[in-house]
Amino acid sequence: MKILIKNGRLLDPKNGIDQICDISIASGRVVGIGPVDPAFEAKRVIDAQGLAVVPGLIDLSVRLREPGFEHRATLESEMNASLAGGVTSLVIPPDTDPVLDEPGLVEMLKHRAKQLNQANLYPLGAMTQGLKGEIITEMAELTEAGCVAFSQAVHPLIDYGVLYRTMLYAKTFDYTLWLYPFDASLSKGGVAASGAFASRTGLAGVPVQAETIALHVLFELQKSTGVRLHLCRVSSAAGLDLVRKAKAEGLPVTCDVSINQIHLIDQDIGFFDSNYRLDPPLRSQRDRDAIRQGLVDGTIDAICSDHTPVDDDGKLLPFSEAEQGATGVELLFSLVYKWAIETKTPLLDALAKITTQPADILLSGAPALPPCGHLEIGAPADLALVDLDAEWVVNRESIFSQSCHTPFFGYELPAKVKMTLVGGRVVWESA
């Protein structure tokens, strides 16, 4: 279908565009920006006056809970939630049930997603069989099946020999490893960040060294192998200092942070609210300030939602027994916009953290993927129309995810997505 989007405020960080203009779409791609070709006959005209037109967001960590956890969420519910938040490309961690360690499982997941014909789905393959950290998977076959990179999700590789061999293997074939820097031996039983709050409330602590020691190991092994690393959800000031030094040394490393760590700190847990039971745990205000600074100075490349739907059985428990995780994919744009307002970050710079920069991370490891994260002539027409002046409250009625458990429940947030297009098709629009 030929679509004409008129009078919208085009925001494209890659090309530095912030202007009112028309966008012509045909055959799933952007074919015109600015004055409309007289020969272009649109089958649908969308008046975007008063709305921002932004590239479809790219979320680097979204658990759709299929296969294996359909009682918590389904592909349909969570992809619908992502589209309601303007997210058109999703990276899926491999910790499904069964684990994404065989080509057939990856092909099945991609087939299910293709049948729904909604958002673009990019699975991460398991680095080791069953994520057990013992036997390296057949990465070449998983890549052919559609995996864009390889990860252990939140399962640490305790055997550094296996980690080293995996890095050598990945470097040989130019694969990227997405690793969560976390030393499990230092945080057994921990449920909150070590510090004054955890001590005062009697919650078992997770020391910052669980992150920094893991980072030291990863960087030392990276120096000897040259493998490309993407670090997932760095959460501390000390950890970011190590990432900053690694980048200064020229190591091929990128990193992301969760939207939760940008806004929240450990004291927000309050009276043991299990919605704040997250992984990594919320840390101090100093750590949150360091994360915000890292976003400005380029240490942090991308922001993700770390969307992990949890049902009532997993959340309505005492804090220490509750399951880690929170709904977040449909809150991503609003929370990034909220951060931009609070810190007076230019809107294009903030938007880059959820469009062009995560796209660069994706394409660095999988250059054959179609371009994403920007809007220019010839690019896929993956985009969202957003009312930047709208305000909305996060509650059961406004959330499309099957799970409503989020630390932002009850928050009033700025900006609301009104319409989402994928491949030039309108796949979601507000009622």
Based on helices, strands and strand pairing, what is the structural class?
A: alpha/beta
Task: Give unreliable regions as ranges.
Answer: none
Q: Give me the number of helical elements.
A: 13
Amino-to-carboxy terminus distance: 21 Å
Helix content: 25-40%
Q: Average pLDDT, to the nearest integer?
A: 96
In total, the number of strands is 18
The main sheet comes to: 8 strands, mixed
Strand content: 15-25%
Rg measurement, Å: 21 Å
Task: Describe the structure in your own words.
- The chain is α/β, with parallel strands linked by helices and 431 residues long.
- The protein is built from 13 helices and 18 strands.
- The strands form 3 sheets. Strands 1, 2, 3, 4, 5, 16, 17 and 18 form an 8-stranded mixed β-sheet that branches.
- The protein starts with a strand and ends with a strand.
- The mean pLDDT is 96.
Compile the SSE list and pairings:
Blueprint lengths: L2 E10 L4 E10 L2 E5 L10 E4 L4 E4 L1 E3 L15 H10 L2 E6 L10 H14 L3 E7 L12 H7 L3 E3 L8 H13 L3 E4 L12 E2 L2 H6 L3 E2 L2 H17 L2 E4 L5 H12 L4 E6 H5 L21 H13 L4 E3 L7 H4 L16 H12 L3 H6 L3 H10 L17 E11 L18 E11 L2 E5 L2
Parallel strand pairs: 1-4, 1-5, 6-7, 7-8, 8-9, 9-10, 10-13, 11-12, 13-14, 14-15
Antiparallel strand pairs: 1-2, 2-3, 5-16, 16-17, 17-18
Helix pairs in contact: 2-3, 4-6, 6-7
